[in-house]
Structures are given as C-alpha cells and as structure tokens.
Task: inverse folding
C-alpha cells in the first residue's frame, strides 16, 4: 500500500468536521487490481450511494441530520453535522485518538459471507512531511487502497471517518474493471443516538462499536453520536421518530447529569413511542470511567445519573 | 415508564475491570471495546431482535 499526495487528483478527500462522530458506511462492487494512475477511472461516491444515512434531504450529501433540522435543533448540533472544507490550517487532530480513526477510511470486503477488514486509507493532509517528502498545504488525500489483489468481483464496504466529515469522496479503479452499486441491505437499521462514545476513540472507523455491531448483526447502522452534545433533546427525538429502525439505542448519559436525565428521558421515549408503538428502545447507562475508583466525584456522577435513568425506566 | 419494549443496559461492567479499556479514562479504545462493549451490546440487541423481521 502506498500513499499518494497529489494536489489536483481527488480520491479520499477529507473535510474538517469538528467534534463529530460519523458512522456512515457505503457499499460498492468492484473488480480490483493495481493499475497505473493514468489508467484509473474515478467514480463519485454520491452516484453510488451510502448506507447509514437517516435522511436523504440533507444540505450536503454526507450530512447526518436533514436540512430542515437547521434552526430546529440547537446550533451546536447543526454545526456538528456540517461539512467544512478541509484545509491544513483547519485540520483536526486530537490528543487522545489516532489520526486513522479521526479522518481515515476503512475498507472491508465480504469473504465467506462475512465482512473482513482489508486496509485503512490514512489521511496525510495536515502533516508537513511524510517519508521525508514535504506535503503541499492545499493537498487532497489520495490513497491507493488495493495493490496486487487477486482480480475477483467482490463486494466492498467503506467506513468513513469518525470525527472529520467528508464532503467529497471518489473511488478510482482500473479502467478495464467494473464497479456497480451494491444491493442495499433490506434490513431495518439500528439507530444510535448518543455522544462521542458512539464512535469512541477507535483506532480506525471500522472499529467503532456501532460499526462492529452492524457487521456482526448484518444490519445498517445510523450513528447519531454528537460529541459533547448527546443530551436526549426533544428536537432530536422528533427527528428520530421519523426513522423506522429495528432498535433505538439511546446512549446519552456521558453528556448528561442527574437533573437532565430525570427531565428528558421520559419525554424522549414518549416522543419515539408516538410514532413507533413497539420498536425496541435500549436505554444505555454511561460506561464507568476506567479510573472512577480514584475519583469519588466521577463515581458519584455515575451513580446519580444511572439512578435517574433507572427511575425513568421504572416511571 | 409504562411503555413496553424498553430495554436497559447497565454500564458498570461494560469496560471490564482492569481499567485499560479507554484511552483517557472515558473514551473507549479498540481491543476491550470489541470483546466487552460490543459483545455485551450484541447479546442485548440480539435479544431485542428476536421477533423482528
């Protein structure tokens, strides 16, 4: 595998997307074998479609919330769903998460009817140098994902960045190869409404737990994790009620406290129930901070918010 | 809540007991996440999905 930095070619073009966890995935069918770059045909992913979008009427193609949500939900949530042009000056780095997870793209393929990891496209934009070569500040990411792979017709799935957003994504294949849109998964999706924990700090996008669950359960997943902003808001509940999932997973406690959990859990669940009488709803407690035993205030925070959630469940 | 089909997932043991499952004490990382977090959620969601399509 090799990275290519070329200011004009466009392949995996990453866009800055502060504090977002993005769980879209996309299926393609393609025959693959390495070819010289001049013999590559490029396909815009928008023409192939993505899996895991809750709404089609989005302002920008890779937005997770619908256009009508702007001005309806808090600005912060809307901001989190907007894709910004990715430049080196605004590139997103985090002190606790690998770049491959923040802005890389994972490639999986079906093997013996199971999704198997193939490789990760790492983002080089934002680095000043790589392998002793300088990287132009206005570069777009271009990454050769597959090289010398056996030429077979395969089904692939791409997992997009967990924190940075994407505004444009193109797939290049040998001009003698074929690429087709895969048949959509007819199963109802699992909808996750939560916090940054929905994407967590996985080292690459395919390792976020909604992505793992989607592969294991063979279902699409809609990942509505908003870093710092998963707060059981009724406006978001109204949008959730528009979807038709097999399960709603409500996983907001890490961004809430006892008071807000007590106030918002029941209205959120009822809002969903107005539209979906029997769809399972899973209320998830916050995971214990792994160092909570050393910080009594953290432990108390867990205990109080969990008690509030339990009380709401038994309401 | 008086509403059916509500399920509940306890958070206490989702990350195991060794304190190694997060990069910063809070955000999960891969290895433990796969085995413990998704493993636990998987069984819960499978239970919920038993009677659906």
Result:
């Amino acid at each position: 595998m090799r990275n290519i930095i070329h200011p004009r070619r466009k392949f995996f073009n990453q866009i800055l997307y502060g504090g977002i966890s993005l769980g879209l995935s996309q299926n393609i069918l393609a025959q693959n074998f390495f070819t010289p770059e001049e013999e590559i045909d490029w396909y815009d992913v928008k023409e192939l479609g993505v899996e895991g979008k809750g709404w089609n009427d989005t302002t920008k193609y890779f937005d997770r919330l619908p256009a009508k949500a702007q001005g309806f939900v808090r600005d912060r949530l809307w901001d989190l769903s907007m894709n910004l042009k990715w430049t080196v000056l605004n590139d997103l780095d985090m002190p606790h998460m690998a770049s491959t997870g923040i802005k890389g793209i994972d490639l999986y393929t079906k093997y013996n009817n199971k999704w198997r990891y193939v490789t990760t496209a790492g983002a080089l934009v934002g680095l000043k140098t790589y392998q002793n070569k300088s990287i132009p500040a206005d570069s777009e990411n271009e990454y050769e994902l597959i090289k010398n792979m056996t030429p077979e017709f395969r089904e692939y799935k791409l997992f997009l960045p967990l924190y940075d957003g994407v505004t444009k994504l193109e797939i290049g294949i040998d001009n003698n190869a074929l690429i087709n849109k895969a048949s959509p998964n007819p199963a109802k999706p699992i909808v996750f409404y939560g916090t940054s924990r929905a994407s967590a700090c996985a080292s690459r996008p395919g390792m976020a737990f909604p992505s793992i669950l989607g592969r294991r359960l063979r279902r699409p997943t809609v990942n509505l994790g908003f870093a710092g902003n998963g707060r059981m808001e009724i406006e978001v509940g109204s949008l959730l009620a528009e979807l038709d999932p097999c399960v709603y997973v409500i996983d907001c406690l890490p961004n809430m406290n006892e008071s807000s959990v007590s106030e918002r859990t029941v209205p959120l669940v009822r809002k969903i129930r107005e539209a979906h009488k029997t769809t399972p709803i899973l209320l998830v407690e916050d995971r214990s901070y792994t160092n909570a035993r050393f910080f009594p205030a953290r432990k108390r925070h867990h205990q109080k918010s969990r008690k509030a959630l339990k009380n709401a469940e038994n309401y | 809540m008086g509403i059916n089909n509500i399920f509940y997932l306890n958070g206490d043991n989702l990350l195991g007991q060794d304190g190694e499952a997060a990069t910063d004490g809070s955000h999960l990382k891969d290895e433990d996440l796969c085995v413990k977090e998704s493993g636990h959620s998987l069984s819960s969601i499978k239970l919920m999905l038993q009677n659906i399509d």
In short: The helical segments of chain A are 45-48, 75-81, 99-103, 209-217, 234-242, 258-275, 296-313.
